[in-house]
Design a protein that fits this description.
Shape: elongated
Membrane topology: Multi-pass membrane protein
Strand order of the largest sheet: 3-2-1-4-5
Helix content: 55-70%
Number of helices: 25
CATH class of the largest domain: Mainly Alpha
Pfam families: AA_permease
Subcellular location: Membrane
Structural class: mainly alpha
Radius of gyration: 28 Å
Family: Belongs to the amino acid-polyamine-organocation (APC) superfamily. Amino acid transporter (AAT) (TC 2.A.3.1) family.
CATH topology of the largest domain: Amino acid/polyamine transporter I
InterPro entries: AA-permease/SLC12A_dom, Amino_acid_permease_CS, Rossmann-like_a/b/a_fold
Distance between the termini: 19 Å
């Protein structure tokens, strides 16, 4: 594992994080899908956006309360784990990862279709692959490169909406050349709500998904210089962003264009700009939509890789996912996530109507499950948290928290009743069930691990190699060393694998700082372990090893030439080393191996 230099401690600066938070909720769905919502609802469609915006604001406020009171790299997956149990943390993290890797593939295909506007004769799939390669490369360079690209991508989206808000307002007020004060489209053509009041809820599912992404700022904040401040600021600013970018722009669209106009079907913003008289509106807005797609692809890759990082930190994904290079980039996690994205692109080219459609539908309602667990977690943790730690509070708790939870549940019920999106709900529930089954399988495997058998005293050890990852309970370790070294004259060598997972720092540090923090934590544990042994009169030395325990053990064995190996782990129900058969595989080195289970609270592996 490479060490991250001092310059990486601030992977994302406040300028980048602010723009990520601003642009996070603006996806291609706003620029393209809003026309469908207006046609479904009527001129009052902005009320649908208002309802969904309030829902997102409430969720973000609850998330901010938990994040500021309990800063964590795992964000909402950690809060679900704390509030509801390991099953919730495991499933919500894997569901969120699954959601974003599918989104990455989908956005790559969507981006290629946008580019086909200018290059109609080029097949979609090679363009999609090129976009995937570009965004994967951006994330692999450094966290700062992701932040810089996202700053400009989000900046273009925000600028386009602001220009539309300014120009559109001038036009409807009659202050723009060719414009005149006219709000008749709000009531003409059948009235403000031509399809009835319940039509406001008809577009809720579409709108809620167009706003997904606000929570990314809470994940990115872990790699900023002041996570607590960044999360609180992102949660507070989401009110302004949704009010202006969504509600404001949809209101202007409804004023400028008749709700039943065919021009709304394709790209309402293009149609509005053309009516205002902006030249090359189709080219300009397609460029903006492409930017929105690339932004979503870029942030989706980032988010998916960081969720894998968090899962590995919780020992629920391969430990390699938490390894980082010298620039603080979790390369393996990024490449793993991008592979799924590449597969989605290939599947979209080979089987767009079956396999690719299945993948999209199986992740369609996932984000609502995530939001539902955020709400439930906030309610549970609020009652457990001391008031003094709540620097940011959910408004009117518990009433608003309960109402938000019920509202999300109501959206899920509406999905079940709507034939057009019902399949998304059931397949997404199937996805959740699959991850819960995987969680139970993992638990069952741990439960079947054999009980360790106490070794017979040998009394002949001269060179003892101890593999551990923390200061161990002296009763367990010293007792075992007394059995294998009857004379007390053996020489000891302690090897501590420098693993961000086993040291626990992956759970508290972002990717950009986890390497240095791991080395510090592992060195502290080595020093404390050596002090413990030396205070008991034993001759002991040691060193840090590879983050993979077996490689660390093999290297230490070659260097130290022991005649006895002692591997110290937690009990089977908690030990990742036992889960991956480290003890049994250590015996292949040809040296007698003793396994010690350290039941003291200070042990960690």
């Amino acid at each position: 594992m490479g060490g991250a230099g001092p310059e990486l401690k601030k992977g994302l600066n406040q300028r980048q994080l602010t723009m990520i938070a601003m642009g996070g909720v603006i996806g291609a769905g706003l620029f393209v899908g809003s026309g469908v919502v207006i046609q479904t609802t009527g001129p009052g469609a902005f009320l649908t956006y208002t309802l969904c915006g309030v829902l997102i604001i409430m969720v973000m406020r609850m998330l901010a309360e938990m994040a500021v009171a309990n800063p964590s790299t795992g964000s909402f997956s950690d809060y679900a784990r704390s509030a509801l149990g390991d099953w919730a943390g495991f499933s919500v993290a894997w569901l969120y990862w699954y959601f974003w890797v599918i989104v990455v593939g989908f956005e790559a295909v969507a981006g290629a279709k946008v580019i086909n506007f200018w290059l109609p004769d080029v097949p979609t799939w090679p363009i999609s692959l090129v976009l995937m390669i570009l965004m994967t490369g951006t994330n692999l360079i450094s966290v700062s490169s992701f932040g810089e690209f996202e700053f400009w991508f989000a900046g273009i989206k925000v600028a386009a909406i602001i220009v539309f808000l300014v120009v559109g307002t001038l036009f409807v007020l009659g202050l723009w050349p060719g414009g005149h004060l006219d709000f008749s489209n709000l009531t003409s053509h059948g009235g403000f709500l031509p399809k009835g009041g319940w039509a406001i809820t008809a577009g809720v599912v579409t709108v809620i998904f167009s706003m997904v992404g606000a929570e990314i700022a809470t994940i990115a904040a872990a790699e900023s210089d002041n996570p607590e401040k960044a999360v609180a600021k992102a949660a507070n600013s989401v009110i302004t962003r949704i009010s202006l970018f969504f509600v404001g722009s949809i209101f202007l669209l409804a004023v400028i264009l008749p709700w039943n106009s065919d021009d709304l079907a394709a790209s309402p913003y293009v149609s509005a700009f053309e009516k205002i008289g902006i030249p090359f509106a189709d080219h300009l807005m397609n460029a903006v939509v492409l930017t929105a797609v690339l932004s979503c692809l870029n942030s989706g890759m980032y988010t998916a890789s960081r969720m894998l990082f968090v899962l590995a930190a919780r020992r629920e994904a391969p430990a390699a996912m938490v390894s980082v290079n010298s620039r603080g980039v979790p390369v393996v996690a990024i490449l793993t996530s991008s592979v799924i994205g590449f597969l989605c692109v290939i599947v979209a080219a080979i089987s767009p109507d079956t396999v690719f459609s299945f993948l999209l539908n199986s992740s369609g309602a996932v984000i609502l499950f995530v939001y539902l667990l955020i709400c439930i977690s906030q309610i549970v943790l609020r009652y457990r948290t001391d008031e003094s730690r709540l620097k940011v509070k959910m408004w009117l708790f518990p009433a608003l928290s309960a109402l938000t939870t019920l509202a999300i549940f109501a959206v899920l019920v509406q999905m079940a009743l709507d034939k057009s999106v019902r399949i998304q709900l059931w397949l997404s529930l199937l996805s959740w069930a699959v991850f819960l089954i995987l969680f139970l399988i993992n638990r069952a495997r741990i439960a079947r691990l054999p009980e360790p058998v106490a070794p017979e005293p040998t009394g002949v050890a001269h060179r003892v190699l101890v593999l551990a990852n923390q200061t161990l309970g002296s009763d367990e370790l010293i007792g075992e060393l007394g059995r294998i070294d009857a004379t007390g004259k053996a020489e000891y060598y302690v090897c501590v694998p420098a693993s961000p997972v086993e040291t626990g720092v992956a759970a508290t540090h972002g990717a950009v700082s986890v390497a240095d923090a791991t080395v510090r934590a592992a060195q502290e544990r080595l020093d404390l372990t050596l002090d413990t042994l030396q205070s008991n009169g034993l001759a002991a030395g040691g060193a840090l090893g590879d983050y993979r325990p077996l490689r660390a053990l093999q290297a230490a064995t070659e260097e130290f030439k022991p005649d006895q190996i002692v591997v110290v782990t937690l009990p089977a129900s908690e030990s990742v080393w036992q889960r991956f058969d480290v003890v049994d595989r250590a015996r292949t080195l040809g040296v007698p191996v003793t396994h010690v289970e350290a039941k003291s609270l200070s042990a960690s592996v």
